[in-house]
Amino acid sequence: MGSSGINAEYMGSSGINAEYMGHKVKLHIATRTTSKADWIIESCENKELITLTALDCESDGFEDTLRPLVKGAVIVISMLPWLLHPKAAKVALEEGKHFCTTSYVSDYMKTLDEAARGKNLIFLNECGVDPGLDHMSAQKIIDEVHEKKGKIVSFHSICGALPAPDANDNPFGYKFSWAPRGVLLASRSEAQYRKDGKEVKVGEAQGGIFDAAHVTQEKFEGVGDMEWYLNRDSIKYIDVYKIPEVQTIVRGTYRFPGWCTTIKAIADLGLTNMDENEALVGKTYNAWMAEQFGTGGSDNSARGSHVLCVDTTASHAVAAKLGMAEDSAVMNNLAWVGLFDAEKQITANTAIDALCVIFKEKLVYQDGEKDMLAMKHTFEIENEDGSKGTIVSQMVDFGLDGCRTSIGDNSSIARTVGLPLAVAVRAILDGRLKGVSGVLRPTTPALYNLILEEMETLGVTFQETRS
Fold this sequence. Notes:
The protein is of the alpha/beta class. It has 17 helices and 16 strands. It has helices at 12-15, 18-21, 38-42, 62-71, 85-94, 107-111, 113-118, 133-147, 180-185, 237-240, 259-268, 285-293, 314-322, 329-337, 351-362, 412-429, 445-457; strands spanning 2-7, 26-31, 50-54, 75-79, 98-101, 122-124, 151-163, 191-195, 198-202, 216-220, 224-230, 248-255, 371-382, 388-398, 438-440, 463-466. Helix 16 crosses helix 17 (445-457).
């Protein structure tokens, strides 16, 4: 048996669980930075079954380099940035190979469905945690309700990857498992969902998704106080989950309290701007803030050519811009992350990238620190006889010993993203998914039952309560 895994730097560790897939699986890893695959190889007993190729996924000859690797494989596992999946999927289809990824089904991927079915190939997408386990656990309940002639009236699905309590040691209550740019750009996103049968849109005119009016506070059993904000598009999941009857559907993302107000402040200050500005390079962060929001571009550090601002400081000016007290929690967070640092110089030429630099330095997991994954589905249902009920399904998973070390990653995000995909890959290799083909999500019983049952044996379980 053989498979081929291709990945880029940020996704490699969470995408390929070679040890789980079995000692008889030959794995060929193609990656831009081969050193990042070292721990995968070290984690396997039969290292001779793993081969490694350097592959620049952004080069002009990417497809030509990839093709001979794909020819010798049974399955292509793509952990590339989502924009590059089409290239890998195209080669896999042309060479008659199965294709698996944790990324969302793109419009291009949908166009491959008929051809994949014609070749009896499985093109499995969204088989990680979110998307992935969220689909599986939700669809299982939905199908059970429908089988009993019931209806889904309301559905809330919330998920978040966060530091475990022991590692939650910064005022943001968050640490990055991957590049921070995407997380910070979420502040610019709009959202849409259905509430009581009506479509609701939340954008800039409504204060944005991090506005307090659109953020929900709740207690999560086994974790404590949490808050969650709206995901981009909940409405499309009406079709994904086949619940046309649903009157309310909302998907969201968990954070610890205080994250949303701070990120909204960052967005309101325009610090997620992606326009290039070479004048940023070389300024201190404090000078940048003084220039943007102070009087005359002064810098309260009184360094170099900057003039001490008499009537305001950078932090005071930012507080005034936000309409907040200078000693507020949000202002303390901005100061802690380094926005008023009078020594550190900016090396990026966009506001968002300047911000990413200090976030990557401050909001980072140290070797051995544990994370957690929290997920909750809440269904309001109507039974065939007209009676009503509530179903809550929740999962909390914590990183294990050995998180983010030089020889492996037992973090929750790595396991919950990588293991569902590994279960599916092994099932394909073992011939347990015969009759399944096309471009798929794991929302059919053949897939979600198999994967959820196996995940339970691996310690990732959902607890259900019904009332």
